[in-house]
Amino acid sequence: KNEVEQSPQNLTAQEGEFITINCSYSVGISALHWLQQHPGGGIVSLFMLSSGKKKHGRLIATINIQEKHSSLHITASHPRDSAVYICAAAPPYNNDMRFGAGTRLTVKP
Amino acid sequence: NAGVTQTPKFRVLKTGQSMTLLCAQDMNHEYMYWYRQDPGMGLRLIHYSVGEGTTAKGEVPDGYNVSRLKKQNFLLGLESAAPSQTSVYFCASSYAASGPGNTIYFGEGSWLTVV
Fold it and tell me: Which residues of B touch A30 (CB under 8 A)?
């Protein structure tokens, strides 16, 4: 079993819909990262969480440390949100982050 | 504002050939990483460095070597390429370890095919 599991693997939505991507992890963490991978391959960091909730524009990330679960929400989704979203667990004592396989989101106009 | 730059972006190798991927960052970061990304799997750490002159093995180091002679550069070498090394390679850097407050920056990726 992977140490970081994401669901769903693929997600298709209509423009304007509310999107939720889930991430469960089994390792101890110092932080949980959410990343966005564009169709061309580039990866950018969206959020880094150690507790609670963070918001940036239409994106919201939450984490429940006790349940080892994090969610990424996109409000009022837009075709430009189409990308692969990756969560990654950063262990506290080494540099070997563990990555989920990603969720491919397609938002149709 | 170059950030993290990888070269080359695409390369086709024959089995047994050698090559080096270059990663350069202009953010004065101490930590640099090389990952590989394969279909259906998450990014996996190959090697990393916590400063100039230091390197360490990650999750999947076999068949690869690295060097960090200058703080801004992290080189990934394949001495004798194998088809199993066909993958997309990402370099990344961060100011400190991947904990709270330390954003990780990725390069654009290098597509390597070994035939």
Answer: 98-100
Give the residue, B99 or A33, on which the prediction is more confident. Answer: A33
Q: Which residues of B touch A43 (CB under 8 A)?
A: 90, 92, 106, 109
| Confidence at residue B102, expressed as pLDDT on a 0 to 100 scale | 77
Contacts of B106 in chain A (CB under 8 A): 35, 42-45
Q: Is B99 within 8 Å of A33 when comparing Cβ atoms?
A: no
Question: What is the distance between the alpha carbons of residues A43 and B38, in angstroms, rounded to a whole number?
Answer: 15
Average pLDDT over residues B38-58: 93
What contacts A48, CB < 8 A, 6 or more positions away? Answer: A31, A32, A33, A34, B100, B101, B102, B103
Q: Does B27 touch chain A (CB under 8 A)?
A: no
Q: In Å, how far are A72, A89, B102 from A80, measured between CA atoms?
A: 16, 26, 26
Cα atoms found within 13 Å of the Cα of residue B93, Cβ hemisphere only: 24
Tokens 């430009």 -> residue: A80
pLDDT tens, position by position, A30-82: 899 999 999 887 899 999 998 999 999 999 999 999 999 999 999 999 999 99
**Residue in A88, A98, A54, A89 with CA at minimum distance from that of residue A73:** A54
Asked if the model's pLDDT at residue B75 lies above 80, the reply is yes
